[in-house]
Write a structure and sequence with these properties.
By secondary structure, this protein is an alpha+beta fold. The chain is built from two helices and eight strands.
Length: about 180
């Protein structure tokens, strides 16, 4: 896809809304029934969503074991092997070429979402599907008002779930005019 027209932007903005509504960190277009190569990502500490069109991982190195979950398999998580770092290339919502080297949660999210576009789910990376764990909602999450940290730490987990009171907003630069 070379032309980023209003239809592509509307898809991307709708994906951002869907991702936020589900308290996710990333979403690929095929997860919402569209086969265009579009992903959106917003890490817990970020105020703005990232929109990437025609994304690709151009290089990767190292291996690390991380926990992941997915909006496509809600309520479960599993341990997978991901790269220590990735090189990534895509177009952003303004048709600007974005090239970056990512580590930690960002590299994991980029690999996870590009995998979706390539027909791969995180469970395809698991050594044993029997090790898929059910994630139980925390009963005391709403009663513990003094807790300021999200339940899932970006240091140890994928950060694929965010607290219900996530206050990220769509920036003006991502809104249709």
């Amino acid at each position: 896809m070379r032309d980023i027209d209003e239809d592509v932007l509307r898809l991307a903005y709708d994906m951002v809304d869907t991702m936020r509504e589900a308290n996710g960190v990333g979403l690929a277009a095929n997860q919402v029934g569209d086969l265009r190569r579009v992903i959106v990502i917003q890490l817990p500490e970020e105020k703005e969503a990232r929109i990437y069109i025609n994304p690709e991982i151009t290089a990767r190195d190292g291996e690390r074991r991380v926990e992941e979950g997915c909006l496509s398999i809600a309520g479960y998580k599993g341990t997978v092997t991901r790269s220590v770092w990735v090189r990534f290339r895509a177009l952003d919502h303004t048709a600007t070429v974005v090239k970056l080297r990512a580590e930690d949660v960002l590299s994991q999210a980029l690999e996870h979402e590009v995998d979706h576009l390539n027909g791969i789910l995180y469970i395809d990376h698991m050594e044993a599907h029997e090790k898929l764990e059910k994630v139980e909602p925390s009963d005391d999450a709403s009663s513990d008002a003094d807790e300021s940290e999200p339940e899932v730490s970006a240091q140890t987990d994928s950060g694929l779930w965010l607290p219900d009171d996530d206050s990220r907003n769509t920036p003006a630069s991502l809104k249709l005019k």
